[in-house]
Amino acid sequence: MDKPAPQHDTHKQERRMRPDLRKVFEESIHRLAPFFNSGMDSSDTPMEYWAARTLREMHPELSTQDIRVLVNAAYRYHKELRASAPNGEAATTECQAQPSRQPVTA
Fold this sequence. Notes:
Blueprint: H1 19-28, H2 33-36, H3 45-58, H4 64-84
């Protein structure tokens, strides 16, 4: 007895385990732009720290691992954006303001 061939879904199967993080990413990517458009590389811990703090303030319900995943994704997103821009310049966004790199003095 022949079995009918399995029908494959024509839609691409979602590979993400946490689709809710996609929405958070899309909501926060422009808020994180100043941390990654400064031309600094990913080994500069303070910029990643401030990006993570910003995400934590925006979404306190997220775990530390979720925050790390989002910060790394934002870094890769802005790195690719910079690479595709002319002369490797930071792509312009509505939130292009650079974070202050001056120490705070009392």
